[in-house]
Amino acid sequence: MTIKFNRDETYRDDYTFANSPETIARVPFPFPDDDYMYSMNLEPHVSVGDGAFRAAFDIDEHYISECRDRAITLEKDPGMHYVSAPHMMEAQWDLLELIMESYARDYPEYFTLEREGRNWHWVNRLLEIDDHFTFGDPATLPFEPMEYITRQAQGDWVLQEERDGTLYWGAGIATQRADYSLRFNLGMSWEEFHGPVPLVKEIGMLDRALKFLLRLRIGHPVRRLNWSLTVNPRLEVSAESLPEWAPDRTIVTPENAGKRVYLRIELQPLHRLPRSNAIVFPIRTYLLSLEDIATNPAWARRMHRVLKTLNQELVDYKGFSRYRDAAVEWLSQYDKEHGKEDEGERKAG
Amino acid sequence: MLITGIKSRPVYDLLRPLPGGKRHIVAGQGSGGRAMLRLLDELADLGQQATLLYSEESFSGQNFLAQLQQQPAVELRVYASNQALLEDLKGMLGQARMGTRLYLTGSESFLGTAMQVYTAFDMNRDEVLREHSGTLVRRVWCVHCDTYTENVTQRVYQCPGCDLTLVVRDHYSRRLAAFQAVKADAEVPGELPQAEELDT
Amino acid sequence: MSLNNGTLNLRVARIEAVTPEIKRFTLVSPDGAHLPAFSGGSHVVVLIPNGQNTLRNPYSLMSSPYDTSAYQIAVRRVEDGRGGSRRLHESVREGDLIDITPPVNLFPLVKQARLHLFIAGGVGITPVISQLEELRLSKVPFELHYAVRGPEHARLGEELQRIYGGQVHLYRKGVDERLDISSVLADRPLGSHVYACGPDSMIDATLDCARALGWTDSHIHFERFLEQSSGGEAFTFTLGRSGAKIEVSPDQSMLEAVEAAGFEMPYLCRGGACGHCETAVLELDGEILHTDDWLSDEDKLANKKIMPCVSRAKCNHLVIDL
């Protein structure tokens, strides 16, 4: 499988990011039904087809540009987007091993890993990296192991340590986070970091999901999908930079929503890590404009219904109260049989 | 005890003698002196004494120093500020041995910053108790400029670090021992959320 | 290397006697691939064919978590056991293929610890060996206090002394002073953790001494010898869902009897520690002999739950929810 990489896209300023039809076709569309509510949508992370579920950690045409955007964000504000507690070093090596093994196995044309005991040789042809290092010895790498490998990986990555029957944020790299602060969340327990999420506690899902994850076993990863909306194909939407990007929420109109509003799909393939017993939460983000979605009329129809009927508390939490109506109106052209006149009926159903 | 709908806010304890302890350290601040006195009575019933650390810093002006001085204790150390108490506590824990029990009482800010101190010594939930006392003022962290503001009582306030008008989110970080605040009018400049008193 | 029905099929690369009773087995992938990574304190379950049945014996991994080109386990020959260790000692040869389950860790190191203290006896040293390998990357100090029944049983301890020097304290019966657990634990800094693995008497002594010194349970960790925990008198019980009657022979656990009858139930440690096989008791006329470390004392008194991997019953009638 050969990917044609977009080498010079931007996720800021002039926003030249664009999806090819092939990339649109392979994203994991997150809406199985016309109504959306949180659910235990965890399934075994086994290889399926040749889309986003083929590899353990999916890469696509945006790999090179996304890695560059991460580097820009990291350089701009050191200490803000990559944080690790000191006792997470085993977990960091676990993660480095998992990503290197997975990329080398799933994309042998781009990545090679050679191991002689603890002497490792890593080649990343896409970013022109060729490094020898000693596994377990941080002095042999230019960054801490987690930062080193995730600078070469798509998506955000959070390491959760297991302690006292719950999970704690122990380390993370997050240059694509949706309105949260990594420094603030570090050290929080499962219950604490889900605190702001509406409804999820009330429907009993948090406790069940935690129990499930605590039983997660090495070699048996699971995946789930989450989603949000954002204005412009901007990856860096942290709480810290809120003043930079929140004003964009006011510019959406029913006319420009197709170009301006992006669905952020988060694919999260969760793995238990072998030495640290930590769990890694990768958050691999796919950005699709509503126009991209409309290239598949069934998706556009489905998304129209989802956005129209979505619980207002979730809309507030996901941060698009200001432009939900504009997005719904733009999408309505793809859902003629569910026009404005039967809104009441939809909500009742 | 604090009971709010904020799921990330710590659930505090009531101070009571922890079983099996060989040495008891009781550290409190301002109105927390009341809980210290209660705990000392209970420890005395078990024939045990404690090392006492008391800071006279108080948001409400309450001071229990005179009563604490009447109590039999291994030692009573007094500080003008919470910061000075915590510095000394850090040194004390560095010398302490397994079998130590730690009891903390005071404002949420005091408890939170004390937790940062004892967590570094790997003290766990079965070795430490924390009782909240006094008002519900918050210690708040500005996500934009990294400034901590003590004793915040309003939902919307001005950050002394970056001058932005901030809104306090109902979200607490144990590592930073603070609530989070973000720019209140980030979407439309000047369009502020409704002012309200926190926790009312 | 292949993973079939959740087990790894490995080649026995080397067998060496390390004491009169203990043999060390080195296991590698037949195709030379790296084995699944693990953490210090992990164990695997070795599947040992035994006539019609399969014995499943858990053994701690004693090799380095940072070199997964091979696994090592130490097998102590138990004369009065169910025969699993005897078969491994007598029938398995270098070059043979054996099945094991992937590693699971129920005895992990505490990553926030400021001092690790290990107390081990006899073959209980095995999980500690991989834990010490893991600590090589850490700057946290540790001490190992290791007691053996005599100089001829001391080889693993002497190997560790050569690697770690003065951090390893060896107590050879008849040669060295006796291990005094109370003085090992006395006067330790905050954030110390003790890990005990050895005979029941040693674990109980560690628990007693630590608590007497004011240590709280979150700083005390132990793993009992797993192999010795089964065995007793024969009894019969019923599976509530299928109505099947299961006979448990003196050398079988309830879990093994369930598996021998062709049923499956969840398990991990097979030693009464992890909680995976916890099963509700639906009906009981008699008493349950709880021998696990999982159920609380209240649970054990209430007799509403049982851990079939280790616990047994002395009863006329027992129905469990399976």
Offer a quick outline of the entry:
The complex is a heterotrimer of chains A (349), B (200) and C (322). With 200 residues, chain B is α/β, with parallel strands linked by helices.
Please state the average pLDDT score of chain B. Answer: 92
**Percentage of helical residues of chain B?**
10-25%
Shape descriptor of chain B reads: elongated
Largest sheet of chain C: 8 strands, antiparallel
Quickly name the level 1 CATH class of the largest domain in chain C: Alpha Beta
Label the structural class of chain C. Answer: alpha/beta
Q: Approximately how much beta-strand content do the residues of chain B carry?
A: 25-35%
Helicity of chain C, in percent?
10-25%
> In sequence order, what are the helices and strands of chain B, one letter per element?
EHEHEHEHEEEEEE
- The whole-angstrom Rg of chain C is 20 Å
Specify the CATH architecture of the largest domain in chain B. Answer: 3-Layer(aba) Sandwich
Count, helices of chain B: 4
Indicate the low-confidence ranges of chain B by residue numbers: none
CATH superfamily (homologous) name of the largest domain in chain C: Nucleotide-binding domain of ferredoxin-NADP reductase (FNR) module
Describe this structure in words.
The complex is a heterotrimer of chains A (349), B (200) and C (322). By secondary structure, chain A is α+β, with helices and mostly antiparallel strands. Chain A has a domain of 236 residues. Chain A contains 14 helices and ten strands. In chain A, a hairpin with a 6-residue loop joins strand 9 and strand 10. The relative contact order of chain A is 0.15. The model of chain B has no long low-confidence stretch (mean pLDDT 92). Chain B is built from four helices and ten strands. Chain B has 200 residues and is α/β, with parallel strands linked by helices. The longest helix of chain B is centred in the middle third of the chain and has 14 residues. Chain B folds into two domains: 110 residues, Nucleotide-binding domain of ferredoxin-NADP reductase (FNR) module (Rossmann fold); 46 residues, no CATH class. Chain C has three domains: 102 residues, Elongation Factor Tu (Ef-tu), domain 3; 110 residues, Rossmann fold; 91 residues, Beta-grasp domain (Ubiquitin-like (UB roll), Roll), CATH 3.10.20. In chain C, a hairpin with a 2-residue loop joins strand 4 and strand 5. The longest helix of chain C is centred in the middle third of the chain and has 13 residues. At the A-B interface, helix 5 and helix 6 of A face strand 9 and strand 10 of B.
